[in-house]
Amino acid sequence: MPDPILQISGLDAHYGDFQALFGVDLDVAEGEVLAIIGANGAGKTTLLRSISGLTQNAPDMIQYRRAPIGGLRADEVANLGIALVPEGRQLFPSLSVEENLIIGGQIGRKGPWSLQAVYDLFPILKERRAQQSTSLSGGQQQMVAIGRALMANPDLILFDEISLGLAPIIIKDIYDALPGIIGEGMSALIVEQDISKALSVSSRFYCLQEGRVSLCGASATVAREDISRAYFGVA
Amino acid sequence: MEWVNAIVQGTLLGGLYALFAAGLSLIFGVMRLVNIAHGDFIVLGAYLGLSVTTILGIHPLVALVFVVPCMAMIGYILQRGILNQTLGGDLLSPLLVTFGLSVILQNALLEIYSADPQKMNAGALETASVSLGDLSLGVLPLLTFGIAVAVIAALQWTFYRTALGRAFRATSDNQEIAQLMGLNRRHIFGMAMALALAVTAIAGIMLGIRTSFDPSVGGGRLIFGFEAVIIGGLGNLWGTLAGGVILGVAQTIGAKIDPGWQLLAGHIVFLAILAVRPNGLFPRVSG
Description:
The complex is a heterodimer. By secondary structure, chain A is of the alpha/beta class. Chain A contains nine helices and ten strands. Chain A has helices at about 45-50, 75-80, 95-105, 115-120, 125, 140-150, 170-180, 195-200, 225-230; strands at about 5-15, 20-30, 35-40, 60-65, 65-70, 80-85, 155-160, 185-190, 205-210, 210-220. Chain A has a six-stranded mixed β-sheet, sandwiched between helices. Chain A has a four-stranded antiparallel β-sheet with strand order 2-1-4-5, covered by helices on one side. In chain A, a hairpin with a 2-residue loop joins strand 4 and strand 5 (about 65-70). The relative contact order of chain A is 0.18. The model of chain A has no long low-confidence stretch (mean pLDDT about 90). By secondary structure, chain B is mostly helical. Chain B has a single domain, classed as ABC transporter involved in vitamin B12 uptake, BtuC, CATH 1.10.3470. Chain B contains eleven helices and two strands, in the order ααααββααααααα. The radius of gyration of chain B is 19 Å and the shape is globular. The relative contact order of chain B is 0.21. Chains A and B meet through helix 2 and helix 3 of A and helix 6 and helix 7 of B.
């Protein structure tokens, strides 16, 4: 197995006063697409918040390219090349579509992604570039959120529930576009409630249940009943 | 004709009020911080101008070259050192801290410059005037108004046409997500306060040329600034200019009716507008 780009060991994380993660161990290999599945409240979002620096932890619990990053602020983590597509899109309402994309790229990392590359991937955004981001449909907003993260030319991209609240046809479009995005040599971590979608684009998966890893393995070969057990905790 | 004159003079006075208000408007817009010490920073700007003109023997307008960067630096250090620590929770802690700053500033100025009223000497500029038909317009009020328009235009341009302005708007929208874009909000807020105090420095110098000042006059300038911001609508810089003008015109017309009514008329118009349009005349439409 190639060197891990991200290594999480014994991560305990809190969401407010509530402990959301208990001793989570996880690693992402260079160029790998990893899926995190689990029910509501299993700790998936807290895991992504911890990696991206929105929640701070003990430095050694999260290592990126063998450097401890658990204690860094979100802007410092972003500068290292980790980008997050947050749950619920979270575009900047005061910024136009194009400005949302530009601000994603303002940390100035070199790489294949530019305004033009994002417009080539999602041509509709080019037509809508001068509009307020809030005037777009949910699917188009999700494209902006993905494009905004890509503009940072990250080495590791985190997707949080990108199918949430979108029509099935839109979800299909976005998942069809994913291999092309991640194919550029990026590593990706996909948090998703839609298990089959998550397994179809990933090589390995981790299942979280009440803040602990309840199952992990290869996405292609896992048995459905094992996932059900790990997902819902039924015996 | 006298009434036309009152309106024109009030409009020009409104330029000064817009300068008082612009910094307040900017920092509230970016970080939801209400700076109670804003008026005292205006007075600090005036005193710094006084010191620079006295020591170097230069014209007050030339002193801007020194005072503006100096105040900007004070703003950045103040924000990074103190005010950032008060943000994030409720609105009360920044209010209390800036109130404390106001007390400290007033007393420090009193200690250094004494309570005697001071004034900056701008020479012939103070009395120069131009005639426009039957109207006689002071060059200084005209210049102040022109500077106010230029400052508002420059701030507007910064906000909507530069990377810094984009960062201001993004951070104002959502601090967490802005951090994810690699923006350090502490630095962004520091830049916003630096810009706000740079504008405040201009306001202080124009104030100090126009009238005499002492360490206690900051509170009154703060009120005028607040009123201009609220009349114009929060988060709208051109609205702030309009708010300043409305306040200025209300005051000069009030003074025309009865010299004792100058300030009262301004406050009454402010309250009337607040009662009819609680969000001000031109609230920001997007959002």
